[in-house]
Design a protein that fits this description.
Length: 394
């Protein structure tokens, strides 16, 4: 069994995953794909990769996909809704599952893949932000391998010694998480109030989906990654340091007690971490141009500006408070980012909405997944109410 299933197949990470897998079709046959409602892209992926199963979370989209596949005489079976996503995540012919749905919506199918004993390639950082402790407990119970796809966490994974010991036992003093600083690192602060969705989505180094692009512009993406690193590597928040590195060549670093600092470098192309995770512990060609250090010329590093980017501070606050706080942060952020993308609120309103919801919903201990999903829903309701209030005031 060597099959590959991809959740979020039509997105930026999903398509990059299929690009890498398509370079090694005998090694990684594509057996199942899932997306939300982009029928056109899914149809194209079915033509090219011939999966046994394709699921659309949206029932109308699933019906439309089924119709279009039949017209073309393609044999892919179609499934719909949460059960369809789960069928992809647990497909019997899949050895590994790429979890690349955006947002908390990716949590249930990623968990299903873990429970089914699949090796998990985890791009969906929000799953760990919402339910980090429960998620890692399930990973431990199922005894599965989780390979991080976020370029920073993949870099850290590559710089750490193998094995399950604590960071202390491995001699790690700090994790240095690099951040490009996004498109607004050097913009005058007064200009940030008038930032448009197009400007926020024009990342200087990476070509990504719209939600993560806005998260990169607010530095919330780095905040979510701090929480992700906390759970993936068992790193206390004080051991995780964010370093702004505008060139995005050093993808993160691990500092050891003997003074050594190990870094992983490469061109900013997500196919590198994807290929690393697909083939681990071996290496395969990713289709990525080799890094030319003479072309790069220089590498710069600076401290993040928490005044300009309050979202990073809010994420550190959430991980320090623990319990339900990261789930609240994540839900409020998803609502605020969607409202910004729909031009309902301004760029600087994003941290205002998140902080308001965090103030209203103090951290509580985590008891169960059901409780976390209820907290997620409540935080979304409150965030939506704040968005509405900001709209009415404008
Ligand atoms: N892009 C990157 O470079 C990058 C790097 C590191 C980590 N990540 C993480 O990877 C994840 C995906 O990012 P992306 O940039 O690839 O996002 P994206 O381009 O927006 O793609 C999102 C994917 O998720 C699917 N989706 C959205 N909502 C869904 C739902 N409710 N049910 C089922 N599927 C749903 C979309 O399907 P439709 O197309 O049908 O809507 C699409 O396939 C995010 O968690 C992000 O933080 C991304």
């Amino acid at each position: 069994m060597s099959g590959l299933a991809v959740l979020g197949a039509t997105g930026s990470i999903g398509r990059s995953t299929l690009d890498v897998a398509g370079r090694h079709p005998d090694r990684y046959p594509v057996v199942a794909l899932a997306a939300h409602r982009d029928v056109e892209t899914m149809l194209d992926l079915c033509r090219r990769h011939g999966p046994r199963l394709a699921a659309m979370a949206d029932a109308d989209a699933a019906r439309e996909l089924e119709r279009r596949l039949a017209v073309e005489g393609l044999k892919t079976e179609v499934a719909a809704g949460p059960a369809g996503l789960e069928a992809v995540a647990t497909h019997p012919e899949a050895a590994q599952v790429m979890a690349a749905i955006v947002g908390a919506a990716g949590l249930p199918p990623a968990l299903a893949a873990v429970r089914a004993g699949k090796r998990l390639l985890l791009a969906n950082k929000e799953a760990l932000v919402v339910a980090g402790r429960l998620f890692m407990e399930e990973v431990g119970r199922a005894g599965v391998t989780v390979l991080p796809i976020d370029s920073e966490h993949n870099a850290i994974y590559q710089c750490l010694p193998p094995g399950s010991g604590s960071l202390e036992a491995k001699g790690v003093s700090r994790i240095l998480l690099t951040a490009s600083g996004g498109p607004f690192r050097t913009w005058p602060v007064e200009r940030l109030a008038r930032v448009t969705p197009e400007e926020a989505c024009a990342h200087p180094n990476w070509n990504m989906g719209r939600k993560i692009s806005v998260d990169s512009a607010t530095l919330m993406n780095k905040g979510l990654e701090v929480i992700e690193a906390h759970w993936l590597f068992g790193a206390e928040p004080d051991r995780i340091h964010v370093v702004v590195h505008p060139q995005s060549i050093v993808h993160s670093l691990v500092q050891y007690v003997d003074g050594s600092v190990l870094a992983q470098m490469g061109n900013p192309d997500m196919r590198t971490p994807i290929a690393h995770a697909l083939a681990w512990p071996e290496r395969i060609d990713a289709g990525v141009a080799p890094l030319d250090l003479f072309d790069v010329g220089r590498l710069d590093f600076e401290a993040p500006d928490l005044k300009r980017f309050p979202c990073l501070g809010l994420a550190f606050r959430a991980v320090r408070e623990g319990g339900t706080a990261p789930a609240v942060l994540n839900a409020a952020n998803e609502v605020a980012v969607a409202a910004f993308l729909n031009r309902r609120i301004g760029f600087l309103d994003i941290p205002r909405v998140i902080e308001g919801v965090m103030e209203a919903m103090p951290a509580a201990p985590v008891a169960s997944l059901e409780q976390l999903l209820a907290v997620d829903a409540e935080a979304r309701r409150r965030a939506e109410a704040q968005v509405k209030a900001l709209e009415d005031r404008a």
